[in-house]
């Protein structure tokens, strides 16, 4: 989803751990996409909130965490979809307790036990739950403040009595409004108003002098307000990610830190900031917000057949998109093309004699002419499986699976050991015959089915 549209600054939050004997966490490789850097840092995580419209399903979000190398996640409430999707992953999770649940958990050990058995127990050991955060940013003057300590204690008792295979720590999250004096840092102290509240929390967490601190939220606004620009967001996150592994002057060493946030939560009463990760959701950032995304091609249509009523629009659409791109003066050249499939071929045997079908001739000639003039590649979906399926008697399975040990098709001085090469060279030969022999071809799809049908097995898919 898009970056926030309101210049509200997120607070720096601290998750105070149960013990000072916290174990170190394996290094996470975290790719920060809007700056094209890969940072190997300790304990970088991202907040994943769900108070928004049009979010992708949790399974896709977890996949995004994995592909981005994000090893840590914080969720704000114990919703079922997220831990279900996390099963089997190595992502460690902070599970939040909703503020409104604190009173019930504080006044009833049975309620705390039920909460743990409902929201934690079913997902162990398949989900790596590291912490339970009892409340979020409760202020000392908030009527709920009196319940934070008892809720932590009851949750802690419920966790320890459950004999889970891994130790799950219980804490709470404060914000920096609890601070009184902050300058210079060595003179920092909590405000008089917050003193009793923080002391009670710290007493529960034990070992105040060596208490480990986790930064559970930090970020920068991106659209509106003083210095709330996309460039500043990128600068802050890039520098922060490379910095947190060093810790601070007073506490050197890796500082576990969670960026805010995976998505711009438009249903929250107070709009927050985003990390610009939501590009798999419907609400994509504007082009001006994505100066460093490496967009290489625009594919105008996918597998449009010559007899499809839409075929007449492919060429004009490519031309208009090309004009739109070139007039925009982008810093990099984005090519415009279209995606064809192999059904446009007529003769394909041997590869050197291949040509496009008579039905496809005018259609592909117009496409090729445009691509040659704009120096853009042809995009093609190539599936040897379908060629094999059409003639399993003459086309051997090993040949289709790129698994043949010798030449299967001899075409002049070229000996083909696999069907994929033969299909590609058939396409090259057909392009030569229409004067487009120098066109680059990009295979935009290829694969092998795995669940049912002739030779559609997992083993065959793996071999292919």
From TrEMBL:
Record GO terms (molecular function): glucan endo-1,3-beta-D-glucosidase activity
EC number(s) recorded for this UniProt protein: 3.2.1.39
The entry's keywords: Glycosidase, Hydrolase, Signal
Reactions listed under catalytic activity: Hydrolysis of (1->3)-beta-D-glucosidic linkages in (1->3)-beta-D-glucans
Annotated signal peptide: 1-24
Transmembrane segments: none
InterPro entries: GH, Glyco_hydro_17, Glyco_hydro_17_plant
Keyword match Lyase: no
Domain of life where this protein originates: Eukaryota
Matches recorded under PANTHER family: GLUCAN ENDO-1,3-BETA-GLUCOSIDASE BG1-RELATED-RELATED (PTHR32227)
Protein name: glucan endo-1,3-beta-D-glucosidase
């Amino acid at each position: 989803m898009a970056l926030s549209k309101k210049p509200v600054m997120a607070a720096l939050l601290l998750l105070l751990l149960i013990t000072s004997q916290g174990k170190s966490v394996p290094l996470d490789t975290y790719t920060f996409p809007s700056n094209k850097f890969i940072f190997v840092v300790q304990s970088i995580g991202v907040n994943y909130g769900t108070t928004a419209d049009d979010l992708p399903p949790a399974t896709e979000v977890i996949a995004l965490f994995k592909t981005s190398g994000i090893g840590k996640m914080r969720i704000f409430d114990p919703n079922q979809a997220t831990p279900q999707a996390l099963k089997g992953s190595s992502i460690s999770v902070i599970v939040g307790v909703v503020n409104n649940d604190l009173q019930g958990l504080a006044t009833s050990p049975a309620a705390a036990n039920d909460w743990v058995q409902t929201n934690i127990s079913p997902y162990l050991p398949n989900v790596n739950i590291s912490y339970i955060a009892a409340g979020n940013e409760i202020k000392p003057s908030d009527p709920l403040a009196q319940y934070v300590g008892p809720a932590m204690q009851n949750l802690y008792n419920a966790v320890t009595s459950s004999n889970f295979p891994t130790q799950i720590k219980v804490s709470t999250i404060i914000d920096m409004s609890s601070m009184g004096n902050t300058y210079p840092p060595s003179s920092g102290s909590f405000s008089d108003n917050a003193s009793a509240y923080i002391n009670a929390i710290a007493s529960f967490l034990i070992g105040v002098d060596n208490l480990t601190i986790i930064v559970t939220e930090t970020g920068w606004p991106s659209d509106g307000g003083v210095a709330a620009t996309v460039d500043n967001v990128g600068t802050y996150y890039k520098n922060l990610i490379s910095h947190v592994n060093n810790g601070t002057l007073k506490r050197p060493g890796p500082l576990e830190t969670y960026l805010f946030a995976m998505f711009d939560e438009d249903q929250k009463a107070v709009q927050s900031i985003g990390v610009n990760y939501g590009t798999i959701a419907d609400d994509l950032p504007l082009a001006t917000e994505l100066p460093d995304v490496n967009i290489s091609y625009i594919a105008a249509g996918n597998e449009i057949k010559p007899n499809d009523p839409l075929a007449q629009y492919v060429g004009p659409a490519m031309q208009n998109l090309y004009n739109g791109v070139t007039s925009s003066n982008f810093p990099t050249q984005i090519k415009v093309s279209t995606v064809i499939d192999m059904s446009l071929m007529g003769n394909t045997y041997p590869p050197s004699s291949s040509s496009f079908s008579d039905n496809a001739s005018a259609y592909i000639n117009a496409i090729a002419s445009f691509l040659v003039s704009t120096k853009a590649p042809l995009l093609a979906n190539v599936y040897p499986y379908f060629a094999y399926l059409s003639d399993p008697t003459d086309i051997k399975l090993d040949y289709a699976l790129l698994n043949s040990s010798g030449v299967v098709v001899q075409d002049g001085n070229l000996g083909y050991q696999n069907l994929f090469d033969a299909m590609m060279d058939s396409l090259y030969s057909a392009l030569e015959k229409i004067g487009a022999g120098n066109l680059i071809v990009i295979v935009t799809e290829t694969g092998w089915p795995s669940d049912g049908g002739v030779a559609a097995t997992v083993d065959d898919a793996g071999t292919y």
